[in-house]
Amino acid sequence: MASEELQKDLEEVKVLLEKATRKRVCDALTAEKSKIETEIKNKMQQKSQKKAELLDNEKLAAVVAPITTGYKVKSSNYGWDQSDKFVKIYITLSGVHQVPTENVQVHFTERSFDLLVKNLNGKSYSMIVNNLLKPISVEGSSKKVKTDTVLILCRKKVKNTRWDYLTQLEKECKEKEKPSYDTETDSSEGLMNVLKKIYEDGDDDMKRTIDKAWVESREKQSKGDTEF
């Protein structure tokens, strides 16, 4: 029965109770009055409970939505620098300062960090950097959210040490690009390696010049003249 109908019944029982004079009738009407009041109370409690559950569900949806909304995008728009204590990585994400603080999460290990930004313009952005050049302090590392930027602060495990590269992989790639000189070989063999590289990379004129110099050098050596 609806609460409105129960309230009407209660009012009518109260009117009858005021007019009743016989004890038996009064007792019956009093019992009915208590019964209706209990029903009304139970209805109100159920209504309040449903309302509370609805509010809880709305709050839960608000928390879950940023996690499930949109799709994940890998971010590669960043730069970095360093101080004596920190390596600082600046990740550019337009509007990131407008999302809730809990939507920007960073997980650190001694040699990596993992950034996740949830529900930014309908997308989630991630950036994972593994094999940092040197160890960092997990407890001392943190993040800051600035206008259109997330700043990752990796605290150096050993301060006052210089990082020439952000990651070990970057270091290895850069070193492969440098000409390799074997310091254990004598100077003449090192020179030959340099001339060989120049010859391979040079144009036809350069190759003819090196060929001519090579022939003249061999002729002088065969005559016992080592001067150039």
From TrEMBL:
Q: Where in the cell is it found?
A: Cytoplasm; Nucleus
| PROSITE patterns the record matches | CS, SGS
List the InterPro entries hit by this protein, alphabetically. CacyBP_N (IPR037201), Calcyclin-binding_UBL-bridge (IPR052289), CS_CacyBP (IPR037893), CS_dom (IPR007052), HSP20-like_chaperone (IPR008978), SGS_dom (IPR007699), Siah-Interact_N (IPR015120)
Example GO biological process term?
heart development
Checking CDD domains in the record gives: p23_CacyBP
Alphabetically sorted, this entry's keywords are: Acetylation, Coiled coil, Cytoplasm, Nucleus, Phosphoprotein, Ubl conjugation pathway
Which GO terms of the cellular component aspect does the record hold?
cytoplasm; nucleus
Query: Residues in domain SGS?
Result: 151-228
What Gene Ontology molecular function terms does this protein carry?
S100 protein binding; tubulin binding; ubiquitin protein ligase binding
Q: Which residues form a coiled coil?
A: 3-57
Q: Which residues form the CS domain?
A: 73-167
Q: What is its main location?
A: cytoplasm
What's this chain's function?
A: May be involved in calcium-dependent ubiquitination and subsequent proteasomal degradation of target proteins. Probably serves as a molecular bridge in ubiquitin E3 complexes. Participates in the ubiquitin-mediated degradation of beta-catenin (CTNNB1).
Q: What is this protein called?
A: Calcyclin-binding protein
Q: Which organism is it from?
A: Macaca nemestrina
